[in-house]
Amino acid sequence: MKYYPAEIQAKTFDRKMMGYDPDQVENFLIVVAAQMEVLMQERTALKDTLKNKELDILNFKDREQLLQQTMTQSTAVTEKMKSETDRECKIIINDATQKADMITRDAKDSLRKIYGEIADLKKSRMQFEANLKAMAQAHLSLLEQADQFLPRMRMANIDME
Hints:
Number of strands: 2
Structural class: mainly alpha
Mean pLDDT: 88
Distance between the termini: 160 Å
């Protein structure tokens, strides 16, 4: 049977000739002592549990702080990586643009050179055709002159064949 503080305070013992009944008092004290022992054990257990919970809370706070530091550091690293990546991208794009400009410039120079060569070849062809035409006309003219001066020889050569 459990006693509450109000019950303990209100407890009365039967009176006997020389005071309270010793058996009742002794039984009461045994019960109260047992309850006190249980309460003290519960109190000790609760104190231990509280201490463990407080340690857990401290551990969790330490973990939380570590997580926050880690998140802050990872955010800083991410931002740094992002800025370095942006910088590298700009460098690569600038390099590619310069190479593209150089390739375009070289291609245009090559194209101009090819057009120049084509123009030179056209001039050479026209000159060759003109020279060939002139030579052919000169040969025809020589043949006509030879026919005028030697018409019979030519006829004789034709007959021999």
